Amino acid sequence: MSSCGLDFGTSNTTLGVLCEDAPHLVALEGEHVTIPSAIFFEPAGTATIGRAGIAAYVEGHPGRLMRSLKSVLGRPLLEEATPVGRSRVTFRGVIERYLSAVKARAEAELGRELTSVVHGRPVHFVDDDAEGDRKAEEALHEIASSIGFRHISFEYEPIAAALDYERSISSEQIALIADIGGGTSDFSIVRIGQSRSRSGDRRGDILANGGIRVGGTDFDRLLSLNTVMPELGFRSPAKRAGLDVPSSYFHELATWSSINRLYAPKVRREIDEIKRDAARPELIERFRSVVSQERGHTLAMDVERAKIDLSDLIEADIALGWIEPGLAVRIGRPDLVAATNVLSERLHATVLTCIRDAGVAPDDIDVLFLTGGSTRLTHARAAIKRALPAARVVDGDTFGSVGLGLTIQAGRRYGTNAPAALAV
Fold first, then answer.
1. What is the torsion angle, in degrees rounded to the nearest 10, for the CA atoms of residue 77, residue 375, residue 103 and residue 28?
2. pTM assigned to the model
């Protein structure tokens, strides 16, 4: 039985297999073991995934880019049909195309078929919606089956990261695992150690799990709305006194998963009407230019890049000359914090809840293990750390810890004569 661990993330995807009893991530795009969770459809319907798909879009090839695919799981949008080339495909079908291509690449690299998978999943696909959460996992299970996996199970992503971290320690610890990804933030408090890793039943080692649907794309959205969208007319006045132009279109342009909705002919006509009714039509013309060029993802990537740069820099510039000559936005780190601090505080509150649910005191937690791209955000890290003042901070493999842990779990679940692992 050939098994793998599959971390299908909002921003990036990894797939791992065991080699000589150690987990290894498979190269999925050139030498890269991570591949962006993105797919580009040419007008004829041909699909290109990952960096190559993003490059085709950025270079101006005709077609449609789709990113943040995972974020539609658990939402009605999953079954909504969207134009792809000359046909319409559901978002479920788009995810299936993407994951099928990932699986095929891994099998080509390995030279064998993969039949069993431990799929990573957030603690909550959807906040405060048990039915939506159930449907999200069910949909991912059905997709995994449709692309050829015959044995499918799931593991919480922070538990998988704990399995990866556990390999590196010799003493017993209580660890809070924080996985802050592109679409969700997940936390687990677990007892780990080499002696425990050999136990046949790890359920008692899981003290608490928690999570919220807040991730890197939410930081992108709020940063965009607060700094870039005003330059395109967001919250600008209408000609009619006391009214602003409609805001929903700007929210869609700032949200990765809804950008493509703006390209419908009906929406473009509505934008023309907004421009006629706007007190500052020149701003709406900028917005209209982004939509007419179908460059919404270019704008989103510019904002994302600035957010990442502000992890190390005090200021970052977004050049928008492709919208209007000379147009640019300068963003300072205080702007990022002001725009997104509400999200950092939600992370802090979720950690406190997780600690309470575990029945331990904050000072009882030895280690804060961080993984996921959004743990690079300084104020997000600080908000999590503030709940655990005595814990030592350990940075895991930013994009690989979850995939490695899922691979360990796959070996234990589908291998022979192996000990049980931490499990959902």
1. 130
2. 0.89
